[in-house]
User: What shape does this take?
Amino acid sequence: MKILVPVKRVIDYNVKARVKSDQSGVDLANVKMSMNPFCEIAVEEAIRQKEKGKAEEIVIVSIGPIQAQETIRTALAMGGDRGVLIQTDTDPEPLQVAKLLKAVAEAEQPGLILMGKQAIDGDNNAVGQMLSALLGWPQATFASKIEIADNTVRVTREVDGGLQTLELDLPAVVTADLRLNEPRYASLPNIMKAKKKTIDIKTPDDYGGLTGGHLKVLKVTEPPKRVAGVKVETAAELVSKLKTEAGVL
Amino acid sequence: MAVLVVADHDNQSLKDNTHKTVTAALALSPDVDVLVAGQGVSAVAAGAAKIAGARKVLTAESDALGKQIGEAVAAAIVPLMANYDAVLIPATAAGKNYAPRVAALLDVAPISEIIEVVGPSTFVRPIYAGNALETVESGDPKKVITVRATAFKAAGEGGPAPIEAIDPGPGAPKTRFVSDELVKSDRPELAGAKIVVSGGRAMGSAEEFHRVIEPLADRLGAAVGASRAAVDAGYAPNDYQVGQTGKVVAPQLYIAVGISGAIQHLAGMKDSKVIVAINKDADAPIFQVADYGLVADYKTAVPELMAALAEAGH
Assistant: This one.
């Protein structure tokens, strides 16, 4: 079975996003970029499934600028087999991404698509579900455990009241939550080896094109800031302030 | 233009997120209907019928809907959208699971986790873990929106609106429910609680988390939360996680015990009315958002707090 893992290049999760003064967006110039953390978990899971003999090939796909090759290369150094970059300098919205990935899935015919539950830039948490709907495949989001059997996959999901386990027919789309695994660091020999792995550079037009943007960003602004309050000396003082000053007890 | 709200519930009781989502919907249209998709939901539907502003309540029932299987819920909503210009869905784990599916099947762009309705097609939503707010305009004729409930006031009591059963749709033929493992608790629900007491990695073990955080929460009638670090370390179940990727809460009072205040945790609680931080590290970032900070080891501070609360009649 082939596993397809879409990955996104985003602002590094340790960097605090700063809004541009003209309110046109978040300033990404000279900011450290990395693989989206949830995508990294999806890559790790695909590799673990391959190591268990549940998959033969892992294909990494990314949509973004030419630098997204580095993100794909990171996934190949972790253990992915080959990559596809759909190069675009636009910032496609989830519906457009889902449509491109659907075309990739039709070309690659994976048995499973494993991806992050959300990207930490747009925080949409949408592409996996949309891709699943467009393909007519079953979905399991927010996965914390994945067991692949012959024609099915059993997924434990993080839901509102705790955990839920579902069994899906393959092919399926599964999105990774935080506790699915802890991604490995690529070793130096694997980083060297990854340099020889293939990355096909494609354009959106190779996969049906970027059709109709539906959302227009009017502005991006700073959220209201919270200011630090006061330090209290004792628990008794805290209770008295919560009662009389804040009025919340 | 009419708007559909999808109720948040657990088949037994209606959640307050629904009332808050109705408020967001009423900002778009006076004609708001509520869909209750589940199994054995008559009590939930009766509750939804009493929400002020609800015109009508629709109920769709099947086994797959009872388990909130995403494919099934989306399949029940999509045909209804012939009659509505927008569907508003609480941004719970269940809602986030099926909302984008509805959007894809309608070929529209989903609008995730709105915190403000600016106009009929314009909404504000947080991006980058709440470090920026994006104002977006949707060009779609039908809108699929998830709502961050904490940003809206709950609609009051009214009605009762009529209740009508509808076709539950085809279910989820390729997905089977296997089991669930739900956390049972008599405490208020995290998302809607007036007071939340959260513990962090400083607790050091699950036993310590139970011993320290839970009695304090119970004394205050509060819900229990946890930082991602505490959940990752196994001190608290995943359902307790407050943060960018966990639950977003905005209670009257948020008490953070032994939580340093990573960006991703702050994203989940910084809209609380009053924030209290107890941490022995005076430089912990949590103090930058706390209204009241107590620099102390929780091991001494929490018992003292319990005693002070008892003395104050709590």
Remarks:
- Residues 11 and 298 of chain B are 39 Å apart (CA to CA).
- Chain B touches chain A through 91 residues (CB under 8 Å).
- The mean pLDDT of chain B is 95.
- The two ends of chain B are 49 Å apart (CA to CA).
